[in-house]
Amino acid sequence: MIKDVVVTKLDIIETLGGDVMHAMKESSVGYAGFGEVYFSQVNKGAIKAWKRHKKMTLNLVVPVGEIRFVLFDDREVPNTQFQEIIISKSNYCRFTVPPMIWMGFQGLSDDRAMLLNIANIEHNLHEVDRKEIDEINYDWTIS
Prior knowledge:
Layout: E1 6-9, E2 12-13, E3 20-21, E4 36-42, E5 47-53, E6 58-64, E7 66-73, E8 81-88, E9 93-97, E10 102-107, E11 113-119, E12 128-130
Antiparallel strand pairs: 1-9, 2-3, 4-11, 5-10, 5-12, 6-9, 6-11, 7-8, 7-10
């Protein structure tokens, strides 16, 4: 596990009319304030990589479909490391990613997947760093 990254199991309450899927409360581990919440759709096989936020803490939940998240921590060179997690209804959790961690993700569902990000600050283009997919050596092949 990468330092300061938190994986929190979440509750799904099954009801006859449809499930209630918890995401976050103010008292939750990983809550660092509220700036904005947004959804992002991810097509099957699509890879969105690499991005890191200088100030934003991400709280990622996948209420629909299945997404593989890959983190790359280069804060302590040469002790860089990767962390991977697949989130879906069968592994329903919140993935808290602190600032300065590179992140990419890939849609694994047969249909479109959707992720929810509960961010502590509003999105700002000036606090984001980006790299092309091949600038971080990671094998995105699905095994």
